[in-house]
Amino acid sequence: VTAYLLERAWVDGAVHDDVYVEIDGVRFSAVELVGGSLNMSGLGSADKFRFPRSTGEISRLPGLTIPGLANCHSHAFHRALRGRTQRERGTFWTWREQMYAVAERLDPDSYLALATATYREMVAAGITSVGEFHYLHHQADGSPYDDANAMGHALVEAATQAGLRIRLLDTCYLSSGFGEPPEGVQRRFSDGTADAWADRVRDLGDDAGAAIHSVRAVPDDELATVVEASRGRPLHVHLSEQTKENDDCVAAYGATPTQLLADHGVLGPLTSAVHATHLTDDDIAHLGGTHTYACFCPTTERDLGDGVGPSRLLHDGGSPLTLGSDSHAVVDLFEEMRAVELDERLATRSRGHWSAAELLEAATSNGHRSLGYDDAGRIAVGARADLVTLDTTTPRTAGTGRDEHTAVFSASAADVAQVVVDGRVVFRRGDEEGIGRELAAAVERLYP
Ligand SMILES: [Zn+2]
What we know:
Order of helices and strands: EEEEEHHEHEHEHEHHEHEHHEHHEHEEH
Strand content: 15-25%
Bound molecules: zinc ion
Low-confidence stretches: 44-48
Radius of gyration: 22 Å
Mean pLDDT: 94
Number of strands: 15
Number of helices: 14
Shape: globular
Helix content: 25-40%
Structural class: alpha/beta
C-alpha cells in the first residue's frame, strides 16, 4: 500500500485541499478529504483519521492533482510529421501525401521505437490512457507480416514500455475513396474485406477495440461486419472532418456520413465519432440520440484547417465530449480542453459555452469511459490509481487560483510534475531530457 497526501486535488467534481489517498496495487483503496486538520507531523499519532493499511512513508505531493487524462484519438506515427508538414502551404490532402510518405517507411522495429517515444511524451503530459487508431497493418506491398498483427503488437509493447494503458483500436480500411481500391501505401492499411479484417483482429484478443477508418475507406455493405465483430467493445470512426467527404458521401450514397453510419448500426454508446466537424441538425440528432461520443481533436483540426465542430450542440443533444491529440502536432490535453471553449467562442462570437469542470470531465472520466475504462479517470475508491500532479508555481500557473481553472485555462503539458498510472510512478519532472533524445532518434531515422 502506497499513501499520498495531495496538497490540492480534483475529487467528486471539485478541488479540495489536503486529500489523503491510499493505493493498494493498481487501485485506490482510500480517498479521504482531510481538510486543513492534518499536517505531516501529526500523521503518526493523529487518531482523528484512520489510515488502516498505510505502513510506510506518506508522500506529500504539492501542487494540483487531477485524475489521469485520456487521449482518445492517436495515430502514433504522425508524431514524425511535427514541424515538417507545417513548412509548406498546402491542404488537408497535401498533408495526407506527406503522412503517407512516412507511413511507407515504417516497419515493426522503427514503429516500436517511434511509438514508445511518442507515448513517453504523452505520459509526460499527464496522459494515462491512449486510444490508438491503428491502420498501418501490413508490409509495403500489402502482404501480411509473418505475424499479421506485428504492427499492432509493436504499439501495445510501446505503451507497456512507456507505462500507459492502450486501447488498440484496430482499424478497418478497405478502399481509397468511395468505391476506389487502395493504392500505393494504402495497401498497407487494407485487409481486402471486412471478414478478413475481423479474422485478423480476433487474434488480438479481448483487449483490442475497433475502428472504421471513415465512410471513404469502408464501403456501406461492409459496415455491418465491422459492427458485428466489434460488439461490446469501443468502436471509433473518423466522421465528417472535411466537407469534401460529406459531398462525396452524398454523391455515392445519397446520405450524409452520419446518416450512413446510423443506417448501418454503427452509432451507439460504445461508439466514438472522431472530429464530427461538419454536421447537419439531423446528424447531431442521430449522434446525440444514440449517445455516441464526440471526440474532438482541436489542435489537429486547427493544424489541418478542418473547421470548428458543434461541440456544445452535440453535448446538449446527448453526445459526451472526449478529446484526442490525433496527429500530435501538439501533445497537450490542457490545450485541447481549453481549445474546445476558445474555438467555440471564435465560431459563435460569444463566450462561456463550456465550464472548466465539464472540460476536465471530458479529458478524464468521459475519455476513459469511451475507451472502455469505466473504472479510470476519477480519484475515487476502487478506481484505477492514476494521479497527474501539476506544479502550480510555474510562470504559467502561478497566481491562477489553483483550482480546475488552473488545469483548463492556464496549465500546459510542461507543468506536469509527476504522473502515476495504475499506482506506479511513470514520470517525474527531469525525465523530459531523455524523452527528447528518444524522440529525436526515433524520428530522425525515418528521414535518412
Ligand atoms: Zn485521426
